[in-house]
């Protein structure tokens, strides 16, 4: 007789799980009702086992910052509740959705059981847990305030994830509309314009400049479309290869910060990340030199990374924190002044936190402004491209009508 795994609720509305032996799911449900239970789900043993196995395996894909934020928050909550660390890791391993995180936590559980510290266990998975995350855990273990510091990590990761989502939302719309405009233009010049060429043959000498340009582009795109694809692919590959060199990376990051619309936004994001990361590390008690190392590696911009590394070297030489930041010429004056005041008054963490709050609010306001501005700009951009092609096709027709009217 088949076995059925069930989930039901008792008279106190509490969940009850178990296994029932019955000829069918309907019979199993009737048996549960006779016991005073209300069935919620009933599955044959093999189906339930397969579902549980899939849940244990988890989903594939990269572990994202949102996953780490949730992990940090739950880890802090359970440690604060007094659960043993090994039990906490076991629970989070079973509950993790991503397979890579699940496997990493399972290995971390075995390492901790074998005598390793939690920090040492996480260090074996650098592709999942960043240097920032590991340094914060190390500071938490050393100070006995792991739950408090993990709360700081969760807040930091949540704010970082929020900024990333806003940047993606600001870039997605122009990317989609721009791609659509290029595809539409390609279809027009390769499919529509050639239909007009026979009409224009008699007016070859008298075609307007706009029409000549459109026809020339159409002929090239129709006959040499593969050269256009190879050219675009070559430009992308060349830019990517150049960006992987130190000089190319600096030139690329400098160009990003000088873009007319998105440059100021990207600078605000970089400053907010620098301030928030350094603030959280200082608050957690991480050594300032180690903190600057981590900030440099997580800055996301080579110009800021170089400025932070110069600052680290100057501190080792006995200089102040603010002067190298001022000399770098990347950070706005407000940031360097706040860092200088914080360093002199011993309130560096507080000043950095205020700077981060200010620039995160600025990012929110800038993204909102861009979203309201980008839509009409992209509509104008699309209208200009399509309008150019359409007008260039109809100008000769208007000229033909005028000639025919004059002859008539």
Percentage of β-strand residues: 5-15%
The 3D shape can be described as: flat
Q: What would you say the CATH architecture of the largest domain is?
A: Up-down Bundle
Number of strands: 3
* CATH-assigned fold name of the largest domain: Receptor-associated Protein
Helix content: over 70%
Count of discrete alpha- or pi-helical segments spanning 4 or more residues: 17
Tell me, rounded to a whole number, the average pLDDT.
Answer: 81
Taken in chain order, the helices and strands follow as EEHEHHHHHHHHHHHHHHHH
Query: Which sheet architecture does the biggest sheet show?
Result: 3 strands, antiparallel
Query: N- to C-terminal separation?
Result: 96 Å
User: Which stretches of 5+ consecutive residues score pLDDT under 50?
Assistant: 47-55
Q: Give the strand order of the largest sheet, numbering strands 1, 2, ... along the chain.
A: 2-1-3
Q: How many domains, in number, for the residues? A: 3
Radius of gyration: 31 Å
Q: What is the CATH C-level name of the largest domain?
A: Mainly Alpha
Give the structural class: mainly alpha
Q: Can you say what the CATH homologous superfamily of the largest domain is?
A: Type II secretion system (T2SS), domain F
Structure overview:
The chain has 408 residues and is mainly α. The chain is 76% helix and 5% strand. It has helices spanning 25-34, 45-57, 65-80, 85-95, 99-113, 118-123, 131-143, 146-200, 209-223, 225-243, 246-257, 262-283, 288-297, 302-316, 322-328, 333-345, 348-407; strands at 3-9, 15-21, 38-44. A hairpin with a 5-residue loop joins strand 1 and strand 2. Helix 4 packs antiparallel against helix 5 (99-113), helix 10 packs across helix 11 and helix 16 (333-345) packs antiparallel against helix 17 (348-407). The model is unreliable at 47-55 (pLDDT under 50).
């Amino acid at each position: 007789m088949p076995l059925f795994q069930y989930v039901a609720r008792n008279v106190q509305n509490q969940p009850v799980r178990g296994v029932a032996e019955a000829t069918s799911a309907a019979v199993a449900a009737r048996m549960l009702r006779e016991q005073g239970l209300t069935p919620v789900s009933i599955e044959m043993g093999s189906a339930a086992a397969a579902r549980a196995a899939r849940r244990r395996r988890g989903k594939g894909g990269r572990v994202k910052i949102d996953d780490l934020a949730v992990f940090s928050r739950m880890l802090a909550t359970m440690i604060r509740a007094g659960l043993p660390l090994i039990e906490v890791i076991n629970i989070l391993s079973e509950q993790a959705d991503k397979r890579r995180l699940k496997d990493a936590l399972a290995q971390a559980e075995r390492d901790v059981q074998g005598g390793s510290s939690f920090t040492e266990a996480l260090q074996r998975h650098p592709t999942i847990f960043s240097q920032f995350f590991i340094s914060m855990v190390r500071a938490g273990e050393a100070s006995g305030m792991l739950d408090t510091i993990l709360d700081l990590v969760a807040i930091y990761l949540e704010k970082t994830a929020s900024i990333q989502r806003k940047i993606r939302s600001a870039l997605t719309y122009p990317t989609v509309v721009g791609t659509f405009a290029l595809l539409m233009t390609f279809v027009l010049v390769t499919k529509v314009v050639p239909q007009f060429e026979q009409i224009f043959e008699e007016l070859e000498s008298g075609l307007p400049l706009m029409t000549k340009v459109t026809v020339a582009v159409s002929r090239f795109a129709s006959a040499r479309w593969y050269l256009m694809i190879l050219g675009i692919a070559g430009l992308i590959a060349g830019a990517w290869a150049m960006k992987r060199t130190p000089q190319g990376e600096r030139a690329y990051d400098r160009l990003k910060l000088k873009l007319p619309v998105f440059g100021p936004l990207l600078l605000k994001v970089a400053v907010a990340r620098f301030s928030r990361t350094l603030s959280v590390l200082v608050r957690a008690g991480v050594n300032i030199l180690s903190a600057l190392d981590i900030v440099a590696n997580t800055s996301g911009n080579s110009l800021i990374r170089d400025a932070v590394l110069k600052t680290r070297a100057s501190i080792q030489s006995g200089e102040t924190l603010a002067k190298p930041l001022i000399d770098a010429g990347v950070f706005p004056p407000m940031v360097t002044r706040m860092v200088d005041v914080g360093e002199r008054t011993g309130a560096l963490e507080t000043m950095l936190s205020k700077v981060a709050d200010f620039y995160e609010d600025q990012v929110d306001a800038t993204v909102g402004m861009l979203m309201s501005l980008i839509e009409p700009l992209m509509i104008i951009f699309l209208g200009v491209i399509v309008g150019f092609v359409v007008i260039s096709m109809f100008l000769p027709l208007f000229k033909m009508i005028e000639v025919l009217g004059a002859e008539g």
